[in-house]
Amino acid sequence: MRRRHLRGVMAIEHEVYPRPWSTGLFISELSDDRARTYLVARVDREVVGYAGMNCWGDEAHVTNIAVAPAWHRHKIGTRLFFEIVRSAIVMGAECMSLEVRVSNWGAQRLYGNFGFRPVGVRKNYYQEVKEDALVMWADDIHTAEYLDRITEIADLLPEEVRP
Length: 163
Fold this sequence. Notes:
Layout lengths: L5 H11 L6 H8 L5 E8 L2 E11 L2 E9 L8 H15 L4 E7 L3 H9 L3 E10 L4 E8 L5 H12 L8
Parallel strand pairs: 3-4
Antiparallel strand pairs: 1-2, 2-3, 4-6, 5-6
Helix pairs in contact: 3-5
């Protein structure tokens, strides 16, 4: 993600989250590109989604993924998630984690398609809406079998969002 995309990212952040990250927090995250990856999805010049992850040694953690509501159901989230997972693999991750709202069934299905499974609950994690987070985890993401699995998902994407 380039800083020039930050305005579009922040617009989506404020549109989809009750307690959005600050611009300063995003800038701080972008400052360490050795351990972090942040991506944007664009249609023409418009930022329509973004995703981020941290990688420490053999573990990666998805920090955020969001798509502008007007662009939901266009497989943009799937493409972003594919690219984030692929980036984690390139950075040496063997496993990956994330948190997702317990009410966000669509996202849970997406992550499940990528081999993520529920491993716990963080009570009241999303304090602004008093909602728990489901912790999801994927092991062995560095294997050829896992890469084949996610490549099959990518191959099913519409051509305009295919890697």
